[in-house]
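cron nightly-structures :: item 1 of 1
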Amino acid sequence: MLNLTENTKRILFVVFFVIFSIATGYALYYFFFRPLAGPVPGQEPPGYTGELGTSGPRGDITPVQDDYGILTPADTVTGTGEQPGTEQISPDVSLLRDAVTQAASPSADGNTRYYNPEDGRFYKINADGSITILSSRQFFNVDNVNWGNTADEAILEFPDGSNIYYSFDDQRQVTLPQHWEDFNFSPKDSQVVAKSIGLDENNRFLITTSPDGNEATALYNLGKNAQDVIPSWSPNNQVIAFSKTGSPQPDNGEQIYLLGKNNENPAALNVPGRGFIPNWSPTGKKILYSVHHQRDGERPMLWISDASGQDVGRNRQKMNLITWADKCVWANDQELFCAVPVELPIGAGYEREPFLGIPDDVYYINLDTGVSQKINTPEQNRPISQPIISQDLSTLIFTDSVTGKLYSYKLNY
């Protein structure tokens, strides 16, 4: 048996303690504090350089076609709670759906599509008030619905970052990458524009892709500016997004870049305020937008200007209506209807959420004649969101911002 002196034991204990401490420290460093791979010392990392850059095709995207989160399709659906017909509230107001209704949107055939969060299904309200189910498949907890323009298809975004492309016409489903967000369809639905948001700021791009995720191409390097870019494909197919990254403007204005799909030099739209919200006209030749400024009590004010080719920014007009641009709907390039809160306090342009419950008046605007007039009767006293105009321009369909119920309002103008 080996006999150790007390000094030997102390030395061995110290040596063991030092080795153990070094090993523990290295393990902590490796797993918790080790920096990720970075650029070579002395070289600038690629990425944001003060403006939006460009990039080439991406080859690392693999969309997955699957059946995640769905039920097997059925020929008929029972127990959905959807009842055909409407309830007449007054001569001008009808209740189309007496329950929370989300993502109401016009379809190419002139009807209204929507999502029922209670049963996770999508439906369509026809002109006669009857309800048609678009699919028996269920998608619960959908956070955002991005509808196609010409076909009944959509990209669904979920709270956990999951994204699903779904075609209601052929019941096809594809899972898209989780780091994609803020989708918007092209006019003919052949492509979508979206943000690809990597963990590293140098791996954040504005991309175009087919709706099912194939043929993805990174067009602009977003860098630190991802939150300042608004994907919005213009009806004339010239612009895919707005970027609030232009040069500082006098009197607290902003310069908005209109980003093209072919990496061409972007046109610049100078707007007289902050909080830019756009709304394309049906042809894409004009743009309605809202911004807030001290001159208007920092409340959202509507403006309109030309927005195509060399005419971007020309013929700018102040509409003298205090509301947000997405509370308006175009009938054609000369006429539009806007929901205008009966009263907005000073500073409402900074934070919209507290004022969603304020009732709206309905205004008719004719750009040819310069007419802007309130046309609603006292029966219309609800807060309006997601306005839709019928094909014959006789009815405004909208979601109540507070209750989520779906209404129609007969227009008199």
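cron nightly-structures :: done
The chain has one helix and 31 strands.
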